[in-house]
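Postdoc handover notes: sequence design on the structure in folder B. Input tokens:
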């Protein structure tokens, strides 16, 4: 008889739960590093913040997708997910550093949709690069 913890439904629920909890935690960290309040701006209809936040959500989820695919244990999945998040966060700071002529956060808060879109695409694109390197 199969061990309860090795059942596919239980493993799926465990991995899903961990990924969702990590995503909430990582979004809270992104909330701290941005100048604006993501959810307040989204509630106001700021589409740029919605795109940037959506890109972060997609990026985190995509990193966990790769982590789940390539790791058997929950602990390894969490470790690679955390590592991937740190790299994604690092990418956010690099994006801010590479645009010295204006502040990314200020432009996104002002609903500059071009900057919001680029921020989203950077998060999504980096998540594929990070995910492809997860073992």
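Designed sequence:
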């Amino acid at each position: 008889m199969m061990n309860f913890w090795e059942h596919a439904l239980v493993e799926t629920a465990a991995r899903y739960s961990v990924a969702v909890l990590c995503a909430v935690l990582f979004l809270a960290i992104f909330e701290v590093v941005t100048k604006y309040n993501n959810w307040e701006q989204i509630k106001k209809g700021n589409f740029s913040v919605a795109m940037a936040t959506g890109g972060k959500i997609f990026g985190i989820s995509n990193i966990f997708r790769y982590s789940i695919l390539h790791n058997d244990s929950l602990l390894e999945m969490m470790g690679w997910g955390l590592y991937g998040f740190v790299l994604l966060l690092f990418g956010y700071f690099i994006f801010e550093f590479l645009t010295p002529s204006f502040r990314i956060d200020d432009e996104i808060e002002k609903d500059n949709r071009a900057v919001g879109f680029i921020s989203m695409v950077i998060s999504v694109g980096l998540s594929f690069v990070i995910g492809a390197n997860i073992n």
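Context for whoever picks this up: Helices lie at 8-33, 38-43, 47-70, 74-97, 104-109, 113-132. Don't rerun without checking with the PI first.
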